[in-house]
Specification:
two-stranded antiparallel ribbon, 13 strands, globular, disordered N terminus
């Protein structure tokens, strides 16, 4: 080989090597800059690192998504990564997923401090929360029209770009087992993003995203089945009249949840009035306050709004106070871009201006079932927003073959819910949980995600059930 050619190749190798080294160095530097040292109002130590900041998903318009990642509490290098997404559309994953559901930091009643959630999912996995799309939570765009032009397609595309760029910043997670989870309108986000990843991975060998599966809770899936199941649930629970039940089915069954007709809107308002002052997101727990109910009941039912819980139904209000504190935003490296508005748990602007929203994602589920992903659908059975009846109708519409029949699953000797395994999909109900399963039943939700990650049934086998029943009969003398 001529000396000049050898010298040229050597220079190219050195240049590429330096570029890679420089890129890795920059990633590590930015990663360190994103590390959160201590949260305001945190009077306890944690044994895990966590990071918060922005990833620009579109340089031209200046769209940037805010993230907050918490490492697993034990041996994070061996644990999978779970991306959690809340819905709305327009609701913050920080407000709900992190601050009152699966995250380790929950906000106290004073709105100025946090406490450690003992049932956080970061006890079994590394957790990544993202405010998506732009205009939600701390995420922003330098182009104001972006906030009023969100839709399903761009949300999935931006989320894919986020993941690819975030993995450049956190290269230790490249190739790591990766799962996506979410609830409510994330019934669209989760399968759509999973589909985008599968398509990307097929076209790009050596993709850093090692998607293994996804899990959706109380998710909007199919507008027809979700409407039929919703009104049936409300009627059988005694919350609405026969007349309203009949009229709602006539006016709403063929309607979009996101863009309903005025006639459908009117009958749902009548149904809300008949329900009275209860929390439709959790029908057996008290709502927050009388003052909040007026605004709350005017929201459409698909939106994750005021959430009730047994001991403190006002968790969302506490988060609004906490995440608007300047010291909190400084600790989380928040940058507002050209947006000086206050932080909101849900953006009405994003919701009211939502563009494309398909009437069903059943076709996406079918496609992803055939790809071999692990797919779990779960449902809190005390939710009157996207109730268990809606989810069952949607799953039945997939016409899947049953592998393991319907049976109860247990936690601490008590029935935690029921489950059925189909070919390519597992369905789990969570007894007594509302729309936000981890909020109302945190211990059951943790048992759920443990089984999901392990790829094992959450319920005992039929043989175990028979053996247990036989033993109990013998003890009781039957």
């Amino acid at each position: 080989m001529p000396f000049w050619r050898w010298s040229f190749l050597l220079l190219v190798f050195i240049s590429v090597n330096r570029s890679v080294t420089s890129s890795d160095s920059n990633s590590i530097t930015q990663q360190k800059l994103d590390q959160v040292s201590n949260l305001p109002g945190q009077n306890f130590n944690v044994d895990f690192a966590h990071y918060a900041g922005y990833v620009t998903v579109n340089k031209e318009s200046g769209r940037a998504l805010f993230y907050w990642m918490t490492e697993a509490t034990d041996d994070p290098s061996s644990k999978p990564l779970i991306l959690w997404l809340n819905g709305g559309p327009g609701c913050s994953s920080i407000a709900f997923g992190m601050a009152e559901e699966v995250g380790p930091f929950h906000v106290n009643e004073d709105g100025k401090s946090v406490y450690l959630n003992p049932y956080s999912w970061n006890t079994v996995a590394n957790l990544l929360f993202v405010d998506s799309p732009v205009g939600v939570g701390y995420s922003y765009s330098n182009t104001s029209s972006d906030i009023t032009s969100n839709g399903d397609k761009r949300t999935a595309a931006d989320s894919l770009q986020f993941l690819l760029k975030w993995l450049e910043r956190f290269p230790q997670f490249k190739g790591r087992d990766f799962y996506i989870a979410g609830e409510s309108y994330a019934g669209h986000y989760v399968p759509q993003l999973s589909q985008a990843i599968v398509i990307y991975n097929k076209a790009n060998a050596g993709s850093p995203i090692n998607l293994k599966g996804y899990m959706v809770g109380n998710g909007l899936t199919d507008d027809y089945n979700d409407h039929v199941g919703l009104f049936q649930f409300m009627w059988t629970a005694g919350m609405i009249s026969d007349q309203t039940y009949k009229k709602a089915n006539e006016l709403c069954n063929r309607e979009s949840f996101i863009h309903p007709s005025s006639e459908c809107d009117k009958i749902t308002e009548i149904a809300s009035q008949e329900m009275g002052h209860i929390d439709p997101y959790s029908i057996f727990t008290p709502p927050c306050t009388a003052d909040s109910l007026t605004k709350w009941f005017l929201k459409r039912w698909h939106k994750v709004g005021q959430i009730g819980q047994t001991y403190d139904p006002c968790t969302e209000q506490h988060s609004v106070v906490y995440f608007n504190l300047p010291e909190v935003q400084k600790a989380l490296h928040v940058y507002h871009g050209n947006n000086s508005q206050e932080w909101e748990s849900c953006s009405d602007v994003v919701e009211m201006n939502w563009k494309d929203s398909p009437i069903s994602v059943l076709d996406v589920h079918r496609e992803l079932i055939s790809s071999g992903l692990r797919i779990w659908i779960y449902s809190g059975d005390a939710d009157a927003v996207i109730p268990v009846t809606s989810t069952r109708y949607s799953i039945n519409a997939l016409n899947l073959t049953t592998i393991d029949p319907w049976r109860a699953w247990y936690e601490d000797g008590q029935v935690g819910g029921w489950t059925q395994k189909y070919e390519g999909l597992t369905f789990v109900t969570v007894r007594g949980a509302g729309h936000e399963v981890p909020l109302h039943k945190p211990k059951l939700a943790l048992a759920l995600v443990k089984s999901f990650l392990a790829g094992t049934s959450i319920a005992p086998s039929i043989e175990q059930v028979v053996e247990s029943t036989t033993s109990a009969s013998q003890v009781n003398g039957f």
